[in-house]
Amino acid sequence: MSRSERSPLLLAGLLAAAGVAHFAAPRSFDATVPSSLPGTPRTWTYASGVAELALAAGIAAPRTRRAAARATAAFFVGVFPANIKMAVDWRHRPAPLKAAAIGRLPLQVPLVLWARSVAQSAEARS
C-alpha cells in the first residue's frame, strides 16, 4: 500500500480513536468546551465524538472521502477554540500538562493541511 493510500486510512483511524475517546472518557473533553456555547458540555462532547466517528467513516470510504476530508479540515478549524480554552485553563498546571495543552495549538495546522491533502488526493483520483 502506497503512502497516498495509507494517509486517508491513518486520518480516519485518528478521527475514530478521538471519537471513541469522547465516549470512553467524556469528562476530560467536557472541560474544554467553551462556556459560551449553549447547552451542556457533555452534549458538545458527545456531538463532537459522533462527528469524528462520522468523518472517520466518510474518509475511510473512497466514494465519500473528498467531501469528508473537506469537512474534517473545517472540523479541525472549528474545534480550535476548545484547544485555546484548554491552554488558558491549564496555564497553572504542572509543566508537562501545560506544555501538552500549549502544544496542541500549533498541531491544528498540520491536521487541517493533512485533511486538505486527503481531499485533494481524492479529487485527483476521481
Could you characterize the architecture of this molecule?
- It is a multi-pass membrane protein.
- By secondary structure, this protein is mainly α.
- It has one domain (3-121).
- Helix content is 81%, strand content 0%.
- It contains six helices and no strands.
- The protein has helices spanning 3-24, 26-30, 41-60, 65-78, 80-89, 95-125.
- α1 (3-24) packs antiparallel against α3 (41-60).
- It is globular.
Q: How many domain modules?
A: 1
Cα separation of the termini: 19 Å
Average of per-residue pLDDT values = 92
Structural class by secondary-structure content: mainly alpha
Q: pLDDT below 50 for ≥5 consecutive residues: which ranges? A: none
| Rg for CA atoms | 15 Å
Our count of helices gives: 6
Tell me what portion of residues adopts beta-strand conformation: under 5%
